Amino acid sequence: MTGGESTNIHPEIEGRDSIESRMREILRVRNYSYRTEQTYIERVRAYLSYAERNSLAIDEPETVRRYISWLALSRNVAASTQNLSFNAINFLFKEVLKKDMGDQSDNLRARSGSKLPSVFTVDEVKAIFDHLEGTDRLMLEMIYAGGLRISELMRLRVQDIDWEGCQLFVRGGKGDKDRTTLLGRKLVEPLRKHLEAVKKIHEEDLSAGVGEVYLPNGLDRKYPGAGKTWGWMYAFPSETISKDPRSGKMRRHHVSDMTIQRAMKEGMRKAGIAKYGSVHTLRHSFATHLLMKGVNIREVQDLLGHNSVETTMIYTHVIRTLGNRPESPLDMM
User: Fold this and answer.
1) pLDDT grade, residue 329 (50/70/90)?
2) Could you tell me if residue 333 is inside a domain?
3) Is 283 marked active-site?
4) Per-residue pLDDT reduced to its tens digit, 269-306
5) Which of 144, 168, 216, 263 could form a disulfide with 282 if both were Cys (CB 3.0 to 4.6 A apart)?
């Protein structure tokens, strides 16, 4: 079978459009995020194009091996990009084509060496915040205060804030896991004032007929009207109304990751910090600074939402780079 022919693995799938449609359907049933859905579709699309260009069968493990090798050797992609492509194609085989790739799963995953995460010092974090104001500063402070992933801040709902306990409920984090983490006491009043302004926007949206927000896991069908309630409103909504790519409804989504990343770059630029850093560096810094203060590593693991303490252990190595280092023999001369 050539790339131009349809696979006979699944009779109802007849070509690339049907494959993409079926894959979207399964991803949504499995409650994958919209971003993951888009990424997987994009990666599979690239794989199918490669197979078609080279007249290869899309449902043969050998085609996958050749494609991943082409990415690594000809396109020189990063290990993370290679693995992301493989994960998407693996999903295609298992869930759409209903075919096993055999031992390719172990052989085709790129292995990269252990790397220490980039971390800011406490003074650097303070300098970044001091050069920002308003919502930009508040968003980054909340990420640092609770060790949040950028997506977790973006999707934070008003009802997920525990004011009395000074904590946040992170819903559907990485691996679709829930957890609690910290809300800095210093952020309580700024966050309250911010939400007062957000509530006015929400009320205006309701009056305009666009105040219903997206609800996960089909909750909009189970609880009709819940998407219009204040508790489900995003704590950091988008400045604009846009069409929901899944339902087609006009609504206010959450703030975009690009908005938060731009704020971070601006804060670093104004603070004169030239080292590599991103919004995620604040999460690394949160973990490292807690450990430096003597917080138990198991507690840090829980706050970060790591499955294994081994993942959290990487920050103990970072601490050594920030602590008292031995003097260079050159300086002893």
Assistant:
1) confident
2) no
3) yes
4) 999 999 999 999 999 999 999 999 999 999 999 999 99
5) 144
Nearest C-alpha neighbor of 216 from the set 152, 160, 154, 155:
155
280 part of the active site: yes
Arithmetic mean of pLDDT, 233-258? 93
- At residue 7 the predicted structure's pLDDT band, cuts being 50, 70 and 90, is very low
Beta-strand runs (E) in the chain = 161-162, 167-170, 179-182, 237-243, 250-254
Is 149 one of the catalytic residues? yes
Q: Are strands 237-243 and 250-254 parallel, antiparallel or unpaired?
A: antiparallel
Give the tens place of pLDDT for each residue, 182-194: 999 999 999 999 9
Q: Which domain holds residue 288?
A: 122-320
Q: Both 177 and 38 in a single domain?
A: no
Strand 161-162, strand 167-170: pairing: antiparallel
CA-to-CA distance for 157 and 180, rounded, in angstroms?
A: 13
- Whichever domain contains 200, its CATH number is 1.10.443.10
Category of 147 on φ-ψ map: left (φ > 0), alpha (ψ -120 to 50) or beta: left
Task: Exactly one of 194, 253, 283, 284 is catalytic; name it.
Answer: 283
| Residue 189, in any domain of the structure | yes
Residue 170 bridge partners (DSSP): 179
Please check whether residues 131 and 97 belong to one and the same domain: no
Among the listed residues 45, 179, 249, 280, the single catalytic one is 280
315 tagged catalytic: yes
Taking a C-beta distance cutoff of 8 angstroms, is the pair 110, 72 a contact?
A: yes
Among the listed ranges 54-58, 113-117, 178-182, 321-325, which one has the minimum average pLDDT value?
A: 321-325
Domain membership of residue 8 (yes or no) is: no
140 belongs to a structural domain: yes
Question: 10, 45, 174, 228: which is the annotated catalytic residue?
Answer: 174
Q: What pTM did the predictor assign?
A: 0.81
Residues 283 and 248 both lie in one domain? yes
